[in-house]
UniProtKB/TrEMBL annotation:
This is RWD domain-containing protein. CDD domains: RWD-RWDD4. Residues 116-129 have a biased composition (Polar residues). InterPro entries: RWD_dom, RWDD4, UBQ-conjugating_enzyme/RWD. It comes from the Eukaryota. Residues 116-159 are annotated as: Disordered. Residues 1-103 form the RWD domain.
Length: 179
């Protein structure tokens, strides 16, 4: 019942997203707004008698400090306690929209760009040798690729004994030379 209501209420709303029939996301604030945040609500099997799972772990929230996230979650949990036993997903989303400024009053964007750039620079030396290997594979001509494919089996492995010397041929040719 609540699922159908949510679908009809938020139909065409770009901020609302149904991840699954029991999990929903709502973006509070506009796309370019630095104080915008994303709330994810997942219903448990016994919802609405038990509280839903509320999360702010989405990548969209990576600039929000953990203290502000915990503060928002605590205020949403208070609202959950008030509405326990009733359908509350819409109510929680609207409560967050109405109190966005209050929720984000202590928000100072956390810039994680330095940590990301450190991770990228730390990984760059490791990825350089693998890119050289890729270049070698890309330089093969069609004829070379066909020849390589003909030598290998369906798994890309060379057949057993591919480098063995054909003893029978050598013994036959060797005996003719001896005569």
């Amino acid at each position: 019942m609540e699922l159908e209501a949510l679908r009809s209420i938020y139909e065409g709303d770009e901020s609302f997203r149904e991840l699954s029939p029991v999990s929903f996301q709502y973006r509070i604030g506009e796309n370019g707004d630095p104080k915008a945040f994303l709330i994810e609500i997942s219903w448990t099997e016994t919802y609405p008698q038990t509280p839903p799972i509320i999360s702010m772990n989405a990548f969209f929230n990576n600039t929000i400090s953990s203290d502000v996230k915990q503060s928002i979650l605590a205020k949403l949990q208070e609202a959950v306690e008030v509405h326990l036993g009733t359908a509350m997903t819409y109510t929680l989303f609207e409560y967050a929209k109405d109190n966005k400024e209050q929720f984000m009053e202590n928000h100072h964007p956390v810039h994680s760009a330095t940590s990301i750039s450190n991770i990228i620079s730390a990984e760059t030396p490791n990825t350089a040798p693998s890119s050289k290997k890729k270049d070698k594979k890309e330089q093969l001509s069609k004829a070379q690729k066909r020849k390589l494919a003909d030598k290998t089996d369906h798994k890309g492995e060379l057949p057993r004994g591919w480098n063995w010397v054909d003893v029978v041929k050598l013994s036959k040719t060797g005996s003719k030379d001896d005569e």
